[in-house]
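Question: Send over one sample?
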Amino acid sequence: MKLYATFPDNLADWAQRQPIFFTGSASTHGRHVNVSPKGMTDTHFAVLSPSRCAYIDRTGSGCETIAHAYENGRLCLLFVSFGTTPRILRVFCRSTVVEWDRPSFPDLVRTIAKGRRHAFDGARAVIVCHVWQVQTSCGFAVPRVKKLLYAGPDDDDDDDDDDDDDDDDDDDDDDDDNDDVDGKHHGPSSSSSPSPSPSRRGHDASGHKLDELAVFESRPTLDRFSKLKVRDNEMVEYQAQHNAASLDGLPGLRAARREAGQVLWVGDVGARLRRIASEPEAVAVGFLLALLLYLMSLGLPLVFWQR
């Protein structure tokens, strides 16, 4: 295991090429712990600086991460390797939410999409992650893609994770098996076109050697769903129905709450009071300290008067 205070360049580049990552968050006192899978990293995730990354959050049937970001900001991003070189990458962050109706939202989307797209149907927010620690670990127990699915039958199986269970620092080498020799990325496509066929004997039509990312493709369902909702002017109503609160009742997407007719400050105050009520020991200690200070304040003038 290795720890970093910021995002190293080689790990940032590797993370942005993975077909899937996961977000983990939880409320301060709620019962639910939320883990969500995310895809389309080529257009929806970007490392903006060594201490900041962000991803585009599309409209879905829940809003756990957004609600948790508003309440406490704790967030962990998880990336895993599906190739011959094992790796688990965790990014520990404090998260903030930039909703779709904020002035900075369009520029953030364009930056994260790296010029490939200027807008996405149903994009409800950008989750900005302020990185305070990055961790890598071995990932020996994580399954990998079968090499014959993307490599030619004559390719050497240079599997460097066999019998390496006493060394978990190999995951930070710059010559990762996920990098092509020409430095180009031949990973998952954001289109629905089929991936290159294994019959090409491990190379794509341009002659570039394929890696395990070539067997992934982005699912078109989200784009179709969002396009239909936007076309029928139903997206905002859908957000109001499904994104106004988390499973634990925390306030969710602010735009959705307004559309649902909520008064934002009332909901925020109510959530704050419920949070305080969930900490009875802290409330009791605070009350006792206040009482003690009050009694001391009454006693001090008497002491000085007696002197």
